[in-house]
Amino acid sequence: MEDLPFRDRTQAGQLLSRKLAGYADRTDVIVLALPRGGVPVGYEIAKALRAPLDVFLVRKLGAPGQEELAMGAIAAGGVRVLNEEVVRALGISPRVIDSVAARELRELVRRDQLYRGRRHAPHVAGRTVILVDDGLATGSTMRAAIQALRQKKPRRIVVAVPVAAAPTCEEIAGLVDEMVCYSTPEPFYSVGFWYDDFSQTTDDQIRDLLERAGKELTSAT
After folding, report:
1. Which of 25, 87, 186, 213 is the most buried (most CB within 10 A)?
2. What single DSSP character describes residue 120?
3. H, E, C per residue of 181-199
């Protein structure tokens, strides 16, 4: 399959940015990446479009004993999205969901302080937001991000990912103004299957990319 697997998230972001070229050099555009894996992808997009980059924090709620399986997600602003199908199938109680959500909220707050430091969250009202991740499987994390972002009243939400399960790409497309999936391979397997290097992005890498993006945008203007 052409361009797959991606070499790494950097290459994936470079390829994806070509499909977003119409948003280059626009003062209303901001790129928000979902940590951790979405940040290297978002960095390449922001660099290509000459747009500011920041993070948008969302945490997956892993099913007890099957943490890789998303039973939902939380995002800044008190947003919680549940995958009711998974919750019902596994018989997960509200008490367990609350416990997992509380733990993930603590991590969300920690990461916000770690990545952003003293910088305020970006102002997105009335702007075009390109929301980026390194891929979509079930889409629960992205749904939570979209719901949280809507509360901040952007003018337009564009979701951009290098690779996604086709049904998820179609579903998310119905929630936003524009959906850009670089590739929707069948069968899908998993996000990581379509990357040669899918090693975990570290907190230090995220902070470095955010700092570099800020410097590059300042020097470009």
Report:
1. 213
2. P
3. EEECCCCCCCCHHHECCCC
pTM: 0.88
Q: Cα separation of 217 and 221, whole Å? A: 6
Which amino acid is present at 145? A
Q: pLDDT band for position 221 (50/70/90)?
A: low
CB-CB contact of 35 with 14 (8 Å): no
Q: What is the pLDDT of residues 6-27, one digit of tens each?
A: 999 999 999 999 999 999 999 9
Return the CATH class of domain 9-56+123-220.
alpha beta
CA distances from 167 to 38, 41, 162, 188 (A): 20, 22, 15, 10
Dihedral sign computed on CA atoms, order 149, 16, 211, 29: negative
**Which residues, in sequence order, are CB contacts of 171 under 8 Å at separation 6+?**
139
R_g over Cα of the chain: 17
Question: Helical H runs in the chain?
Answer: 9-18, 38-49, 84-90, 94-116, 140-150, 166-173, 203-220
Tell me: cis bond preceding 40? Omega within 30 of 0 counts.
Answer: no
Residues 75, 98: Cα–Cα separation, whole Å: 14
